From TrEMBL:
InterPro entries: PTS_IID_sorb. It comes from Catenisphaera adipataccumulans. The keyword Membrane applies. Keywords: Membrane, Transmembrane, Transmembrane helix. This is PTS system glucitol/sorbitol-specific IIC component. GO terms for cellular component: membrane. The chain crosses the membrane at residues 22-44, 64-84, 141-159.
Length: 172
Protein backbone atom coordinates (compact mmCIF):
# COMPACT_ATOMS: atom_id res chain seq x y z
CA UNK A 1 0.00 0.00 0.00
CA UNK A 2 2.85 2.42 0.78
CA UNK A 3 4.19 1.98 -2.74
CA UNK A 4 0.88 3.05 -4.30
CA UNK A 5 0.62 5.99 -1.91
CA UNK A 6 4.18 7.10 -2.72
CA UNK A 7 3.52 6.86 -6.46
CA UNK A 8 0.29 8.86 -6.11
CA UNK A 9 2.01 11.53 -3.99
CA UNK A 10 4.90 11.70 -6.45
CA UNK A 11 2.49 12.07 -9.35
CA UNK A 12 0.58 14.88 -7.64
CA UNK A 13 3.94 16.39 -6.61
CA UNK A 14 4.73 17.04 -10.27
CA UNK A 15 1.62 19.18 -10.59
CA UNK A 16 2.26 20.91 -7.29
CA UNK A 17 5.75 21.85 -8.51
CA UNK A 18 4.28 22.96 -11.85
CA UNK A 19 1.75 25.13 -10.02
CA UNK A 20 4.47 26.70 -7.88
CA UNK A 21 6.52 27.42 -11.00
CA UNK A 22 3.49 28.93 -12.73
CA UNK A 23 2.73 31.07 -9.67
CA UNK A 24 6.32 32.31 -9.73
CA UNK A 25 5.92 33.29 -13.36
CA UNK A 26 2.63 35.08 -12.74
CA UNK A 27 4.11 37.10 -9.88
CA UNK A 28 7.56 37.52 -11.42
CA UNK A 29 8.51 37.33 -15.06
CA UNK A 30 5.08 37.79 -16.69
CA UNK A 31 4.45 41.27 -15.17
CA UNK A 32 8.05 42.22 -16.00
CA UNK A 33 7.62 41.17 -19.63
CA UNK A 34 4.27 42.97 -19.89
CA UNK A 35 5.83 46.16 -18.49
CA UNK A 36 8.82 45.89 -20.82
CA UNK A 37 6.52 45.29 -23.80
CA UNK A 38 4.43 48.30 -22.84
CA UNK A 39 7.55 50.44 -22.46
CA UNK A 40 9.01 49.23 -25.75
CA UNK A 41 5.76 49.80 -27.62
CA UNK A 42 5.49 53.29 -26.06
CA UNK A 43 9.00 54.18 -27.24
CA UNK A 44 8.21 52.88 -30.72
CA UNK A 45 4.98 54.93 -30.80
CA UNK A 46 6.73 58.08 -29.52
CA UNK A 47 9.62 57.84 -31.97
CA UNK A 48 7.38 56.64 -34.75
CA UNK A 49 7.03 53.12 -36.00
CA UNK A 50 8.24 54.08 -39.47
CA UNK A 51 11.45 55.65 -38.11
CA UNK A 52 12.20 52.73 -35.81
CA UNK A 53 11.56 50.17 -38.53
CA UNK A 54 13.56 52.20 -41.05
CA UNK A 55 16.53 52.45 -38.67
CA UNK A 56 16.34 48.76 -37.86
CA UNK A 57 16.10 47.83 -41.54
CA UNK A 58 19.16 49.93 -42.34
CA UNK A 59 21.15 48.35 -39.53
CA UNK A 60 20.07 44.82 -40.32
CA UNK A 61 20.84 45.04 -44.04
CA UNK A 62 24.42 44.32 -43.05
CA UNK A 63 24.69 40.66 -41.97
CA UNK A 64 27.51 41.38 -39.50
CA UNK A 65 25.48 44.07 -37.71
CA UNK A 66 22.32 41.95 -37.94
CA UNK A 67 23.95 39.17 -35.90
CA UNK A 68 26.25 41.19 -33.63
CA UNK A 69 25.18 44.74 -32.78
CA UNK A 70 21.43 44.21 -33.15
CA UNK A 71 21.19 41.18 -30.80
CA UNK A 72 23.62 42.85 -28.38
CA UNK A 73 21.39 45.93 -28.21
CA UNK A 74 18.31 43.74 -27.77
CA UNK A 75 19.86 41.79 -24.89
CA UNK A 76 21.39 44.85 -23.26
CA UNK A 77 18.33 47.09 -23.38
CA UNK A 78 15.47 44.64 -23.05
CA UNK A 79 17.03 41.61 -21.32
CA UNK A 80 15.98 38.00 -21.65
CA UNK A 81 13.25 37.06 -22.71
CA UNK A 82 11.98 40.43 -23.96
CA UNK A 83 15.03 40.86 -26.22
CA UNK A 84 13.56 38.49 -28.79
CA UNK A 85 10.86 41.03 -29.59
CA UNK A 86 13.51 43.00 -31.53
CA UNK A 87 12.91 40.33 -34.15
CA UNK A 88 9.79 42.20 -35.19
CA UNK A 89 12.06 44.70 -36.95
CA UNK A 90 13.83 42.03 -39.02
CA UNK A 91 12.73 40.48 -42.31
CA UNK A 92 11.01 37.15 -41.75
CA UNK A 93 13.77 35.16 -43.45
CA UNK A 94 16.38 36.43 -40.94
CA UNK A 95 14.37 35.77 -37.75
CA UNK A 96 15.65 32.24 -37.01
CA UNK A 97 19.28 33.36 -37.20
CA UNK A 98 18.56 36.53 -35.20
CA UNK A 99 16.92 34.45 -32.47
CA UNK A 100 19.93 32.11 -32.42
CA UNK A 101 22.33 35.02 -32.08
CA UNK A 102 20.20 36.75 -29.45
CA UNK A 103 19.71 33.70 -27.26
CA UNK A 104 23.39 32.79 -27.59
CA UNK A 105 24.42 36.18 -26.21
CA UNK A 106 22.39 35.83 -23.01
CA UNK A 107 25.30 34.29 -21.11
CA UNK A 108 28.29 36.34 -22.36
CA UNK A 109 26.58 39.65 -21.58
CA UNK A 110 26.01 38.88 -17.88
CA UNK A 111 29.50 39.89 -16.75
CA UNK A 112 29.04 43.50 -17.86
CA UNK A 113 25.25 43.73 -17.78
CA UNK A 114 23.92 41.32 -15.12
CA UNK A 115 20.34 42.51 -15.61
CA UNK A 116 20.32 41.13 -19.16
CA UNK A 117 19.88 37.56 -18.00
CA UNK A 118 19.82 37.18 -14.26
CA UNK A 119 19.14 33.45 -14.65
CA UNK A 120 22.59 32.96 -16.18
CA UNK A 121 24.37 35.01 -13.56
CA UNK A 122 25.02 31.97 -11.36
CA UNK A 123 27.19 30.42 -14.11
CA UNK A 124 29.27 33.56 -14.51
CA UNK A 125 29.59 34.04 -10.75
CA UNK A 126 30.73 30.44 -10.30
CA UNK A 127 33.54 30.94 -12.79
CA UNK A 128 34.29 34.39 -11.40
CA UNK A 129 34.56 33.07 -7.85
CA UNK A 130 37.16 30.54 -8.96
CA UNK A 131 39.16 33.23 -10.73
CA UNK A 132 38.99 35.52 -7.72
CA UNK A 133 40.34 32.75 -5.49
CA UNK A 134 43.18 32.34 -7.96
CA UNK A 135 43.92 36.08 -7.67
CA UNK A 136 42.59 37.29 -11.01
CA UNK A 137 40.48 40.41 -11.63
CA UNK A 138 36.91 40.03 -12.86
CA UNK A 139 36.88 43.03 -15.20
CA UNK A 140 39.05 41.27 -17.75
CA UNK A 141 36.90 38.17 -17.61
CA UNK A 142 33.72 40.16 -18.21
CA UNK A 143 35.22 42.02 -21.16
CA UNK A 144 36.62 38.82 -22.69
CA UNK A 145 33.25 37.06 -22.27
CA UNK A 146 31.56 39.99 -23.96
CA UNK A 147 33.98 40.18 -26.92
CA UNK A 148 34.08 36.43 -27.49
CA UNK A 149 30.30 36.38 -27.18
CA UNK A 150 29.96 38.99 -29.94
CA UNK A 151 32.26 36.98 -32.20
CA UNK A 152 30.42 33.73 -31.49
CA UNK A 153 26.93 35.17 -32.02
CA UNK A 154 28.01 36.71 -35.31
CA UNK A 155 29.34 33.37 -36.51
CA UNK A 156 26.28 31.52 -35.22
CA UNK A 157 23.94 33.99 -36.89
CA UNK A 158 25.70 33.71 -40.24
CA UNK A 159 25.83 29.89 -40.09
CA UNK A 160 22.22 29.58 -38.94
CA UNK A 161 21.14 31.93 -41.74
CA UNK A 162 22.89 29.76 -44.34
CA UNK A 163 21.43 26.56 -42.91
CA UNK A 164 17.93 28.06 -42.76
CA UNK A 165 18.17 29.43 -46.30
CA UNK A 166 19.32 26.03 -47.56
CA UNK A 167 16.54 24.13 -45.76
CA UNK A 168 13.86 26.64 -46.73
CA UNK A 169 15.04 26.88 -50.35
CA UNK A 170 15.65 30.63 -50.09
CA UNK A 171 18.05 32.18 -52.58
CA UNK A 172 20.15 34.95 -51.11
Amino acid sequence: MDVITNIAQGFIGWFTTGGETFTGWVTGIIPQVVCLMTFMNSIVKLVGEEKVESGAKKMTKNAILRYSLFPMMADMFLANPMAYTFGRFIDEKYKPAFYDACVSFCHPITGLFPHANAGELFVYMGIAQGLQKAGYELGGLAVRYFIVGLIVITIRGLVTERIYFHLAGIKK
